[in-house]
Amino acid sequence: MTTELKLEVEFNKVIRERHSVRKYDPSWKISDAEIKEILGDAILAPSSSNLQPWRFLVITDQALKEKVLPIAHNQQQIVDASATIAVIGDIEAYRNADKIYEYAEAAGYVTAEVGAAMAKRSKDGYSSMPQEKLKEIALVDGGLVSMQLMLAAKAKGYDTVPMGGFNPEQFRELFNIPERYVTVMLIALGKAAAEGRSTARLPLNEVTQWNGFQG
């Protein structure tokens, strides 16, 4: 009981202390190992049919960050943060269904027969969907993993800011990203040089309704 209470308190602290930070210490470097730990926590997020359409492009090279800067409307955190992480969605994630269920079988979560049936159902169902629907799914799942990434970073003492303000076409061109993938957002990750600004939230009763929606 004590451990559970401690974890709940720590989680409440993380979600209340996480703010979007736009000023970073440019001298602070986060190791690749630490970034991998954060991403490892992020990918525990849920996704549609567990197809995990998220992909990450981690940009730590300073010269590359300088190239991204104008694409991201010269937001200084692009170059000052330790890393800029592009969250990308795979609209053909269903193609990985066999692989996912092979891992599930190896872990003892499903039998080979059940895994094969579930993989086939995913491939048949998602491959018949229109591209716009697949894109919508990838964006929703990309949002879920992005939020988890930012909370995971805060839990380790780092700060982040999500950025939708960038030119996706120019970004895709710079990194030769195939049409199969959709850009979800950029996330700056680093050590804050100034605290993020606290923001107000609408009262819960203004954004919540029970058993019916009145508009």
TrEMBL record:
<comment type="similarity">
    <text>Belongs to the nitroreductase family.</text>
</comment>
<dbReference type="InterPro" id="IPR029479">
    <property type="entry name" value="Nitroreductase"/>
</dbReference>
<protein>
    <submittedName>
        <fullName>NAD(P)H nitroreductase YodC</fullName>
        <ecNumber>1.-.-.-</ecNumber>
    </submittedName>
</protein>
<keyword id="KW-0560">Oxidoreductase</keyword>
<feature type="domain" description="Nitroreductase">
    <location>
        <begin position="15"/>
        <end position="191"/>
    </location>
</feature>
<dbReference type="InterPro" id="IPR000415">
    <property type="entry name" value="Nitroreductase-like"/>
</dbReference>
<dbReference type="GO" id="GO:0016491">
    <property type="term" value="F:oxidoreductase activity"/>
</dbReference>
<dbReference type="Pfam" id="PF00881">
    <property type="entry name" value="Nitroreductase"/>
</dbReference>
